[in-house]
Amino acid sequence: MTKSFYQTICASLGLSLAAGLFQSWLHVQRGVDLYRLASFRSWFLVGDFIALLTASLLLTYFHHKRFKAAFQAGLVVTVSLWQPFSICYWQPTTRCLVSI
């Protein structure tokens, strides 16, 4: 593990945090109508990509450091959570996300 890898993990975690806070702020400002905006599908796809990248980097770190329990739990959570989000993206956002 190099220093640049650790910096990439930190940057990815920071980007995930910033995206989540920004989406929360938009939700407070716009309410449920946020999910009906035309640009929300693109934002949702970008957010999923950032989350998958962050999870992949963390799983790589856990595997390299031989944290077996954290790696296995993270792998189960990442795989189980990725499926519903990807299904929601392909369905119309007004039906899928408002009902969650």
Describe the structure.
This protein is an all-alpha fold. Helix 2 (40-64) packs antiparallel against helix 3 (68-90). It is elongated. The protein is built from 4 helices and no strands. Keywords: Membrane, Transmembrane, Transmembrane helix. The chain crosses the membrane at residues 40-62.
Topology overview:
Elements: H1 3-30, H2 40-64, H3 68-90, H4 93-99
Helix pairs in contact: 1-2, 2-3
List descriptors.
single chain, transmembrane helix, transmembrane, membrane
Total discrete domains: 1
Order of helices and strands: HHHH
Q: What is the number of E strands?
A: 0
Shape, please? elongated
Q: How large is the share of residues in beta strands?
A: under 5%
Summarize the structure.
This protein is an all-alpha fold.
